[in-house]
Design a protein that fits this description.
With 138 residues, the protein is mainly beta. The chain has 1 helix and 8 strands, in the order αββββββββ. It has a 4-stranded mixed β-sheet with strand order 4-1-7-8, with no helix packed on it. It is elongated. The chain starts with a helix and ends with a strand.
């Protein structure tokens, strides 16, 4: 190989490497990482199940007979992990839906009051061979 080919290959290799930003584990300054303090609804997975998704549907009253539903989703929650959501302050009626497997889900409707700087916690567990969702005692 001639010096010209080596120089060309080296230069191309250097250009390709200069496009890399570093390790994928590095957090760049333009990436926003949500702070745990931003969440006020936590759902702990205390069951042995892998939850493909946890959906929280909040129903808001806009006008008389005109309700709007907002769905919040967190996914891939293993045993011992926590799904985190941000719910508006005030009294809210919401439904928690767990999706651990294909064609299988568990839902339960709750009503709770959300206050500024307070966290409401629920937990998923197995009770008498059934998946249950219940409010966690603080």
């Amino acid at each position: 190989m001639t010096v010209k080919k080596w120089l060309t290959i080296s230069l191309m290799f250097l250009v390709l490497l200069s496009g890399c930003k570093g390790n994928s584990s590095d957090v760049s300054s333009d990436t926003k990482v949500a702070n745990d303090n931003e969440y006020n609804l936590l759902i702990s997975n205390n069951s042995p199940l892998f939850l493909k998704s946890v959906v929280v549907t909040v129903e808001e009253e806009k006008e008389k007979d005109n309700n709007q539903k907002n769905a919040l989703i967190d996914a891939n929650i293993n045993h011992g992990e926590v799904a985190k959501f941000r719910i508006e302050n005030g009294k809210q009626v919401f439904k928690i839906t767990l999706n651990p497997q294909k064609n299988y889900s568990v839902s339960k409707v709750f009503s709770d009051k959300f206050k500024k700087d307070e966290v409401v916690e629920y937990q998923v567990k197995i009770d008498q061979n059934e998946v249950t969702i219940e409010k966690k005692d603080n």
